[in-house]
Amino acid sequence: MRAVLTGNKYVTAFTLGMQSSMEYRLQFFIGLFNLVFPIGLQCLIWTAVYASQDHQSLYGYDYGQMMLYTVLAGIVAKLVMTHLEHTIAEDIKSGGLNTYLVRPVSYFGYRLSAYMGSRVVSDTILIIVMSVVIGIAMAFHIGEMSLNRVAVAIITLVLASAVQFLLTYTICALAFTLQEISYFFVITTLIVQILSGGMVPLEVFGEAANQWFNLLPFKYTIYFPVNVLNGRLAMNEAFQGMLIQLVWFVLLIGASRMAWKLGLKRYVGIGG
Amino acid sequence: MSIIEVNNLSKTFTYYEKKAGLRHSWRHLFHREELERHAVSQISFNIEQGEAVAFIGPNGAGKTTTLKMLTGILHPTSGHASVLGYTPWERAKAFKRNFAIVMGQKSQLWWDLPANESIYLNKCIYDIEDRIYQDTLDELAEMLDVTRLLGVQVRRLSLGERMKMEIIAALIHQPKLLFLDEPTLGLDYASQKKVRQFLRSYNEQKQATIILTSHYMKDIQDVCSRAIVIAGGKIAFDGRIDAMKKAFGDYKRVKVRFYEPWKEEEVYQWLGAHAVVHAHHGDTLDLQVEHEAIKTVSRRLIEHSGVEDWSIEEEPIEESIERIYVQQSKERGLNVGQEQSRAAELQSLEA
Amino acid sequence: MKMRSLGYYFKLYGVFVKNCVAASMEYRFNFWMGIGVEIAFLCAKALYILIVYQTNLHIGELTPDHILLFIGTYTMMTGLYMGLFYVNFVRISQYVQGGTLDLLITKPVSLQFLVSLRYIDIGLPIPNILAGAIMVGVGWHRAQLPLNWNLLGYIGFIGIALMITYCLMLLPALLSFRYVQTGAVTEMAHSIWDANNMPLDIFPMWLQRIGVYVIPVFLISNYGPKFVMGMLNLWDILWALLVPVILFILVRKCWSLAVRKYSSAGS
């Protein structure tokens, strides 16, 4: 509440987001289970796959690397995926957006601040879990971990979150035009998750498909940061990827601005 | 035997309190303080077959809670009730077959289908014979003047038409007891009138018992002959509607127009303790005057040279009731409105 | 009396189906979107099939073709769950918060029936059931499994699986009576559900035991194919027949507990 006194509305939004994330404790604690269980399932499947034919290496990953990829991709997916679609679409559909449009506050700024606030607690937990995983991987010499890499990976993760947020925000502008949007978001979330490498490493799709993935922003949100972390990408490749992330960041800022401008024009046109 | 007997019925809600601020959010995550609110406390009344009774009271007074207990939706914290010979919250199927409830803001109709499909579903649920169903449907639709709208999708109907369909759906099994929670809320004047007329004649023709809550005094005066006023979870008045005035103090409303604008202090000096200023806009004055003082006040008005015109009216019944609410909350030593809105807010967060 | 009431409920369900078909024709866009959603999920499943065949995955005696039979069964069950149950279970919290539940409580019919089976989505299950059936057919054929009374047994196990699905997935949904946000619980239930994605043999023994005897999710998509392959003994079959009964009794108990809590807490 001190934030109100100092007059920064975005800080207020941040604190409110953080508070409401703690309002529902059931949600909060079960979230941990939902992190571990699917990852465990994936690991078991891969274990069965590696065991069945005495494979040394599949899709270019040895067993340890595959485990590391699966675990890290699961955590990174939780870190970068926003799940904001429904909140924003609801604002657009129910006219809640109006209350922001008439106030001296940027909707984007408000949502971003509230979102970051709501993530503080869960992200802290995720980062702790990730540190433990990295620590274990280093101790057992799985992948090629080093502190330098971790530092670089942190930057790629921040960029990945930014790209993912903008991606979501851009897609949400479709709520201005589409009638029934919730189904649509289920599709986009799933497709984004598959194409980002959140389910399985992108190598599974084969060479040809990967040529196309290079042209899309998705692989830079999960697949890329994970491979920076586990050491499959050389340092120069990591920096190259970061550059591409930056390009996508700039492009998506433009795209989201344009999409929302068009959407708002329509929104105001039909009277909300 | 009374169709409804209520004895010392009470309902207490628990809710959590959370103070603003991040520090409290964190504490709230692990520990919550439980608070209690007495929505209804120790109410008792009887209702006879064929009566039309209104529950009156401000928001959060306990009207809807009482209604919900009588229909078996809510379990009381303590007390007894017998409705049609059943204990409502045991929810016997035989009991449910004999009453209906219409809630102004909740719909049982399928939004995307014509209303008659939803009514037909009720026919199946209540297991009504084909011929009886058809006759009842025809009769109700005719009474409410919506026969040609039965085949129209509900979402294409106006609010008033939709409410009429809700009523038909609720009455298709010809219940002897009908509960209505704010049935005319948000309807236009013509629809309100139609619904009232219908309820009155349904009550008279079928000898059906009607229990109604509403904020519109017109609903209550047109449909009901008896009122139960609930304030702060307690019964403030129970009796015939025409006896309500007496019970709440017999006040008149005197409207005065002056030639020139008057100051409020001057009015007080001039009329003294005989009248209370209810409203004052420049050259017009609204006075609340007790029955006994009306002669004195009239005399002074005639004698005063500044008065252009004046009239004496009955005090609107809403205002008599409002006085009761204010009195009640003063007795309880707190501001009811504020406490309730806060409690409601907390509940909506927690549910 | 019992038979009459069974007929009564069948008739009511028929009216539900009729109403839902009529309503879904109203929103053809939603209908196609629902199909789109399921196709997207199918793509995710296709990934697993891709990996199974690419790596020529063998699990114990199971060949990739056998595994396809499991994945196909799981896909079909997912379609049935989404179309028949999920559409109702997600609505429970809306009923509670919007107060529709109050109206439903006053109806002289089983509240659980009314709440948990009132809606049927026609679009959602089509792609899954179709694709699942094709997978089962292809797997069945390629694995050279006999096609005789086996099929009848398989269908019987699908019926059992349906009962188990209804009970198991309704249990977490009951939390909506008490809590506003149950997204995390639903997510948890769904991630457990996803454990059926692969034959249970890939799990360590202790997890298999839990999944068969404690939270019997594995019965849903494993026992049908295993029966066809002759991998079930008499005890397994008896257990599979017993589980739906136990679960149904449990669900009934929890249901009335939840409703009693609701009506004594109120809103």
Automatic annotation (TrEMBL), chain A:
The chain crosses the membrane at residues 28-51, 63-81, 120-140, 152-176, 183-202, 238-260. The keyword Transmembrane helix applies. Keywords: Membrane, Transmembrane, Transmembrane helix. Coiled coil: none annotated. It comes from the Bacteria. PANTHER family: SLR1174 PROTEIN, SLR1174 PROTEIN-RELATED. This is ABC-2 type transport system permease protein.
From TrEMBL, chain B:
Keywords: ATP-binding, Nucleotide-binding, Transport. PROSITE patterns: ABC_TRANSPORTER_1 (PS00211), ABC_TRANSPORTER_2 (PS50893). SMART domains: AAA. Residues 4-257 form the ABC transporter domain. It holds the Pfam family ABC_tran. It comes from the Bacteria. Residues 332-351 are annotated as: Disordered. One of its GO terms (molecular function) is ATP hydrolysis activity. PANTHER family: ABC TRANSPORTER ATP-BINDING PROTEIN, ABC TRANSPORTER RELATED. This is ABC-2 type transport system ATP-binding protein. The lineage of its organism: Bacteria, Bacillati, Bacillota, Bacilli, Bacillales.
UniProtKB/TrEMBL annotation, chain C:
Keywords: Membrane, Transmembrane, Transmembrane helix. It comes from Paenibacillus aquistagni. InterPro entries: ABC-2_transporter-like. The chain crosses the membrane at residues 31-55, 67-87, 119-140, 152-177, 232-251. The keyword Transmembrane helix applies. This is ABC-2 type transport system permease protein. PANTHER family: SLR0610 PROTEIN, SLR0610 PROTEIN-RELATED.
